[in-house]
Design brief:
Largest sheet: 7 strands, mixed
Distance between the termini: 66 Å
Strand content: 25-35%
Oligomer: single chain
């Protein structure tokens, strides 16, 4: 028997969820025949068979999470003898790597002050001691604390596992929050001179390009281990797209070398691909800077999370008519709120402010 393991599907994610098996145990398959669809890095990816042969075992069921390097399927030994190297196979080391404990994990629960009786009661009622706010002497958990937490959990309903897109989003956001030294600058662009049917997305992309031209250091990646940054000569723009399944960030390549019509066509194609969940995995990787237009929903300013190795994300709030001072007199003008969050390890406040000023100056042009 020869095993085929889950290959590295990119972007540092170490696991994937089994969505659909396209084969059954005992099936005879050919090279490159679809074996399974998995969800990782916010996309459903189809994994082909690395060889021809008969499937003797499926190691995971639909809905299960599989680690990179863990076995997916087994082929019969006879077929394996006629094959060379296995595409996507990772050498097994036999070493088991323990995951770091989280705030909700066993290490956090063990640090809680609770008697053996209270710990037993919590286990019986299905309560994690780490989520309890102790009210006893010296911060000890009491019986009423455990029972109150049990009631809150019962009223809240069953735990819903975070899977697929949301799981990828959760992992990315946790990593970013732990690593990046975030800072945010905000301001309002006066867009009262815009035509009535201006393409807001295209104007924002153009403004972001103007910001990158003024301060190229925000179109960069930061290497935490080497304590250095790489400034990119090409802008590969990640565009945050909200869906019911979670956040997608597809990438528009080399926006500086494309005209407005071409960029609009690319944005429209992205929307279709995301809606149909057919966006290629490579189009979700390698952004050098990100744009988020959350104002199409609600909100004026924000402090969005910078996802490493990127160092900046520009966000646009809700466009509205607001009273502002014009030549010292109050006037009603259409304004576009902007929030620029940056990684202060790689970008100074002056650099971020100059980027934002350049973006605003471009947005305030009539066309």
């Amino acid at each position: 028997m020869s095993e085929f393991v889950l290959p590295d599907l990119g972007e540092g994610l170490q696991e994937a969820e089994i969505v659909t098996w396209h084969v059954n145990m005992g099936d005879q398959v050919v090279t490159d025949q679809p074996l399974v669809s998995v969800e990782t890095d916010k996309a459903v990816v189809e994994i082909p068979s690395p060889r021809a042969g008969r499937i003797t075992r499926l190691f995971a069921a639909s809905g299960e999470i599989v680690k990179v390097g863990a076995p997916l399927v087994a082929f019969d030994a006879a077929a394996a003898a006629d094959q060379g190297g296995i595409v996507g196979e990772i050498e097994a080391t036999g070493e088991i790597v323990a995951e770091a404990p989280t705030a909700e994990g066993p290490a956090a629960a063990a640090a809680v002050k609770a008697t053996p009786a209270m710990r037993a009661l919590a286990r019986h009622l299905g309560v994690d001691l780490a989520v309890i706010s102790p009210s006893g002497p010296d911060g000890a958990v009491t019986k009423s604390d455990v029972e109150r937490a049990a009631k809150v959990l019962a009223d809240a309903g069953p735990l819903e596992p975070v899977r697929g897109v949301r799981r990828a989003m959760a992992l990315r956001m946790a990593q970013a929050n732990a690593e990046v030294a975030s800072a945010t600058v905000v301001d309002d662009a006066d867009i009262d001179a815009w035509p009535a049917k201006e393409d807001v997305t295209i104007r924002l992309i153009r403004a972001l390009m103007a910001g990158c031209e003024a301060e190229p250091s925000l179109n960069a990646w930061y290497d935490s281990r080497a304590s250095g940054r790489r400034i990119h000569g090409v802008i590969d723009l990640g565009i945050a797209v909200d869906t019911k399944d979670g956040l997608f960030v597809p990438v528009l390549r080399n926006i500086g070398g494309r005209d407005s019509a071409d960029i609009r066509s690319g944005v429209d194609r992205m929307k279709v691909d995301i809606k149909e969940r057919t966006v290629p995995p490579e189009e979700l990787r390698g952004a050098t800077i990100t744009l988020s237009n959350f104002g199409t929903i609600a909100g004026r300013y924000a402090t969005p999370i910078v996802v490493p190795p990127q160092v900046a994300i520009l966000s646009a709030g809700r466009i509205a008519a607001r009273v502002v001072a014009v030549d010292g007199e109050p006037a009603v003008r259409r304004t576009l709120p902007l929030s620029l969050t940056f990684d202060h390890r790689a970008v100074s406040g002056g650099e971020a402010s100059r980027f934002l000023a350049a973006a605003m100056a471009d947005l305030e042009l009539p066309d």
